[in-house]
Amino acid sequence: MSRNEIRIAGAGGQGVVTAGRILAEAAILSGNDATHSQVYGPQSRGGASRSDVVIASGEIGFPLADDIDLLIVLSGEAYSRYEPELSSEGRLVVDSRCAPSDLNGDARQFAVVDTARAISGSQLVTGVVALGVLQALEDVVEADALREAVSARVPRKHREMNLEALQAGMELVGGGGA
Amino acid sequence: MSQAQLIQGNEACVKGALAAGCRFYGGYPITPSSEIAEQMVRLLPDLGGVFIQMEDEIASLASVIGASLAGSKAMTATSGPGFSLMQEHIGYAAMTEVPCVVVNVMRGGPSTGLPTSPSQGDVMQARWGTHGDHPAIVLAPSSVAEVFDVTVKAFNLAERFRTPVIILYDEIIGHTRESVVLPDSIEVVDRVQPTDAPADFWPMIAPDDGVPPLPAFGDGYRFHVTGLAHDERGFPTNDAQVAEALVARLHNKIDAHLDEVIEVDTYMVDDAEIAVFAYGIVGRSAREAVMRARDNGIKAGLIRPVTLWPFPYEQVAEVAAQVDTILVAEMNLGQIIGEVERAAAGKAEIKGYLRADGEPITPTALLEAITPDKEGQR
Amino acid sequence: MTDVKTYLREWAMPHVLCPGCAHGIVLRSFLNAVDQLQIDQDKLAMVAGIGCSSRLVGYVDFCTLHGTHGRAPAFATGLKLARPDLKVVVVTGDGDALAIGGNHLIHAARRNIDITVLLLNNSIYGMTGGQAAPTTPEGALASTTPAGNTEPNFDACKLLMGAGASFVARVLAANPMDMTKVMADGLDHPGFSFIEVISDCPEYFGRYNKVGGGAEMLTWMSVRDEGVAGPLAEKRFVNHIPIESVPSGMETGVLQREIRPVYAGVRKVEDHES
Fold first, then answer.
1. Global pTM?
2. Cβ of C78 and B58 within 8 Å?
3. Using the beta-carbon criterion (under 8 Å), do B220 and C58 form an inter-chain contact?
């Protein structure tokens, strides 16, 4: 793996920024170099939210995403904003709620948001479910490192719930997706 | 060595400052620098340090100068609009020779501009923003790890030369999280203390290196500090010769020690036909672009100043003598490029890749700029 | 009592103040208060801004910081927080403290940081040549109000009481014994103490408004507690002075004194969370 650029895009409140940090921390625990950047807007709540993670086996030169390899989209607004920027080689994962009827044939879709809702009663763990999906699909970091990073990053009282969300995300892929 | 950790540039700044001995932070909230204050308030009290949120940026730097005169290593952090307000006291600190560190996490300007977008628009303001002839030390880190190192260096230079030191980085460096392994130990410099007895002490008599000793208020040395032109006793004067000698010494104490201040990173310039001159985040894009260009058989190199001011004229002149072209890439409409032209003095063609729309200059864009077209033109 | 010269930098004399200026009387009263309280000379820091009153710190043998225009309370805040063992006194003027530095002054008062502010109010900008200040009475003449001042003026003590200063007093330069007593009280007060000293500026205010020299201006103060308002009111030939609006007497003495928590920096996070 020379350089892998992953963008997780969704809505405020889905834990997208936390998910990006967890992924980058898991990459470091796996012995890689990683960076994480997020989009800052004037609003603290709501609106679009985005995490970019760059992972490389060697030292990372430019720390920002320059050519996204994998885009995970978790809201309709994020889909319309970021899908057009994805290059033809870029891979796309879409939450099934926001997948349009004319979704590109190579794109994969999973019930990420519904799974998160079933676990937490809200969208809070959506980003972590998405990490489970990502791990099962692409194996970008070591699975143990990912679990360790989740445990270290989320509040103690939510640790079990987040590990459950991660596992559920992996199983979404095991089930073949939708 | 400690463990690799994923931290933001603003966090690395705090860690560097505390490692260097910073024990006072006075600041005012402003995007994209606020994380520095938010970390300082949590960490300083445990170290016996002081945090205060002041009523504005003018007061922030005033409180920092007050604390520094009380013997604390002190800093503030801000962004463009606040940096404009701080100019008054940057000049005061330079004139009164009070060590302090000012971090400017640059955002798009002018005025309120683009608060959450990066820029490099404050490079000339960092040099000439305050009135009058004054020295300036301005450092520009280009990675989270380098923010740590540069912040330590900033405190050390401030103490070594009794002068304000400005750290300039942009919103991307401030907010991006990168993997950093912090050093277990660092070199820390403290301001020189007087050897004279208090009764014989004149605060502005400088030894040969041009830097007078600085005791803390309350340590038994009673002396006067003023932003007016002053004599060796620290007292105001209108004497032209005394005023001239003071301003000359303020400059010379740094100009005579450029080797301690100037830091320039070069990469593959030895056989280069084109060198990219870039600093801060653009230095990262440029390095990546140079690597890709080399893969494509283009003889490209990089000159990346960590020290923007004093400007590394000699180092740039050396590169200019070797290459055909220097491409200056900066996230403004052309600020440091004028200094590169002065340094090159016609020995190389100087071109600009300039952008001031709040978007980063990417490696792909720079690679295109350094790749000759079919006619061999760039 | 210690010789007052102990506290002076005689080598820095002669000073820059004009004949008839009462600032010297104010300084002497302050040094008497310092002496009464036996404040350690090495532990007293005086911080000033820009203006005639601010130049006083050059002549006293303490640690002295002559800062920028209006910012003295902010310098003093950093100094005091970093060195709590220092007694920190700000010397400022009416233009310095109430115009360009108004924001810093009210926030220092609000925090109740343990410093003392002496505001020497001479109702005009002296050092820059007699321009109108936020304290210049309506109708008074200044180089920037040649037809009489049309702006209302600040009552500094009311402003500071509103900002939450825990000690507020007003004294007259014509009454040095009283000044010393109130200054000693202010220096002793735990928290932010503010003392407005009604001083004079015969060179500009007195000359422009034809209210006499230093002696006449101080005499007015001593008999009617009115600062410049008294002599101004008598000068019926000065255009635009709304005579009926001139206060009959200016309240002096300690106007507010309360004990409330002194600002000493932020608490440790665990102290707060536990």
1. 0.96
2. no
3. no
